[in-house]
Write a structure and sequence with these properties.
By secondary structure, the protein is an alpha/beta fold. It contains 16 helices and 5 strands. Helix 3 packs across helix 6.
Length: 338
């Protein structure tokens, strides 16, 4: 293993990226960084940028990835649960866990302090840097091209699951950013992409759409951009969230093998604990995975689900949801797209 062979876990928001990230973090050799590009934005790299722009952005991306092991932001390094690591002592992990709780408590009390320093790999210890992102899916191909040793997992969730989860989170004011359906600067940017141009999707058309339709197009465009820019790329694996929910251990074993990670009993324990008990929290990784994956069926109306199906019917990333499989359920509107 080498710190120069990072693992990229990229997907849309509300697509299972956090659970996937903690599954990888449960491996003792993984140095995990949770959404560092959301905390410290890559302002010099457009959110949508393809492989062809590698010469322009390669140095910036390599420098960003090189900075991740030393990053101290608690929201990037302190995402619970925390796990023992083979590259650091148990006491170092425990000290960080306690310091992180204290830091969070002081922040809630309005007292600003420096974030604690997370455990750093000891000299000579191997580790695998893992970057989980909901910000960089539209530049996945570019990041892969800029990091020749990297492996990536592009996680895709049922478009209805994505839409329902975003609507639920925004109704509960769970996000600290612009509402996804009303973030028109993003839709203006998306309107200039190839997936939008070939469908004649303009900013004016986006503005006139119902919220559910607009979110469904957001799903289509971001996932198509990533899929098309990594087509035939052996270092990328497309993962369907519902497939992971249906068979957590067998799918995780395959992902670890793809990324060059050995199987870990610590991961097996986390998979068991995260799928056999639930916490009533929007961002929790402890929940019944199948109930979580298909919760949208009780949240979206028949008309809303049919609208999402119409939008996604000709999209390659959505194709598995229109076909029967061991992990996909037959749902409203998602028959064969013909």
């Amino acid at each position: 293993m080498s710190p120069r062979a990072p693992i990229l876990l990229f997907g849309m928001p509300r697509s299972g990226t956090t659970w996937l990230g903690k599954i990888f973090d449960s491996h003792p050799a993984v140095l995990y960084r949770h959404e560092p590009d959301t905390w410290q934005r890559l302002t010099d790299v457009p959110i949508v940028a393809g492989r062809s722009s590698t010469p322009i952005h390669e140095a910036c991306l390599q420098a960003f990835v090189g900075s991740l092991p030393a990053m101290r932001a608690d929201r990037v390094c302190g995402k619970r649960p925390l796990f023992p690591k083979s590259y650091a002592t148990r006491s170092a992990v425990r000290r960080y866990a306690i310091a992180s709780i204290l830091y969070k408590g002081l922040a809630r009390a309005g007292l600003a302090t420096d974030p604690p320093t997370p455990p750093q790999p000891a000299d000579g210890k191997d580790y695998r840097l893992t970057w989980k992102s909901i910000e960089s899916l539209g530049r996945l191909g570019l990041v892969l091209e800029s990091l020749p040793d990297a492996r990536s997992v592009h996680i895709v969730r049922h478009p209805c699951g994505y839409v329902a989860s975003v609507l639920r989170g925004e109704a509960a004011a769970r996000f600290d950013h612009n509402a996804a359906a009303a973030d028109f600067p993003i839709y203006e940017m998306l309107s200039a992409t190839a997936p939008a141009r070939r469908r004649e999707l303009t900013l004016d058309r986006f503005r006139l759409m119902p919220v559910v339709e607009r979110l469904a197009w957001r799903w289509v465009i971001f996932n198509e951009l990533a899929a098309e820019d990594t087509a035939h790329e052996p270092r990328n694996r497309v993962l369907y969230y519902e497939e992971l929910c249906a068979s957590p251990e067998s799918v995780t074993r395959a992902l670890f093998d793809f990324c060059g990670l050995s199987w870990s009993g610590q991961t097996a324990q986390f998979l068991h604990s995260s799928t056999t008990r639930s916490r009533d929290d929007y961002y929790s990784v402890f929940k019944d995975p199948l109930a979580s994956a298909w919760r949208w069926q009780a949240e979206l109306s028949t008309e809303e689900a049919a609208m999402v199906a119409r939008v996604t019917a000709d999209s390659a990333p959505a194709r598995p949801y229109f076909a029967p499989s061991a992990w996909n359920r037959s749902t409203t509107g998602f028959g064969s797209p013909g």
